[in-house]
Amino acid sequence: MASTKSKKTRKALAVGLAVVGVAGMSLAAASQLSLTNNTKFQAGSTTITADCQGTTNIPVTFGTPTLNTATGVYSASTVVFSGVKSTSTECGGLTYKVAIKTPTGWSEVTTGSPTVPTTVPAASTSVLTVTIPAGVVANDISGVSLTIYS
């Protein structure tokens, strides 16, 4: 007959082995999951500059993505420029144009002659929201260009 100490040791080893086995199976199962995304769609922002901004950068982001239920693809419908200095002595009232780069090349996406809103309070900024043309998926946009001019 085995001693009590021997039974406790065996029981502890069995429990330890079971824990290690379960952890090993969990890792093996997790290693089979693919959580990578092979697309170019980027969350976050990059910055650009404009002469009327001085040394202040203009953050550029995509608008909130929405799901196309027919294709299963998320895409944004706008490009957003925030922090554009907008007093009349800065960028306020100046005309701007936006172009995007897709696999087919650069194309202008602004229509007409939009202007940066003019605000009165010092240090105020504006947000410029530009619509991405129908048929263009945000994932295909590899570059954005903003020019602000008089």
Description:
By secondary structure, this protein is an alpha+beta fold. The protein folds into two domains: 36 residues; 104 residues. The protein contains one helix and nine strands, in the order αβββββββββ. The longest helix has 28 residues. About 15% of the residues have low confidence. Keywords: Signal.
With strands numbered from the N-terminus, the spatial order across the biggest sheet is: 1-2-5-8
Order of helices and strands: HEEEEEEEEE
Q: Per DSSP, what share of the residues sits in E-state strands of 2 or more residues?
A: 25-35%
Q: Which structural class best describes the helix and strand composition?
A: alpha+beta
Give the radius of gyration.
28 Å
Helix content: 10-25%
Short description:
With 150 residues, the protein is of the alpha+beta class.
Question: Which terms summarize this structure?
Answer:
150 residues; alpha+beta; 2 domains; four-stranded antiparallel beta sheet; three-stranded antiparallel beta sheet; signal
Architecture blueprint of SSEs:
Layout (H helix, E strand, L loop, with lengths): L3 H28 L14 E3 L9 E5 L3 E3 L4 E3 L2 E8 L9 E8 L2 E4 L16 E7 L11 E7 L1
Antiparallel strand pairs: 1-2, 2-5, 3-4, 5-8, 6-7, 6-9
Keywords: Signal
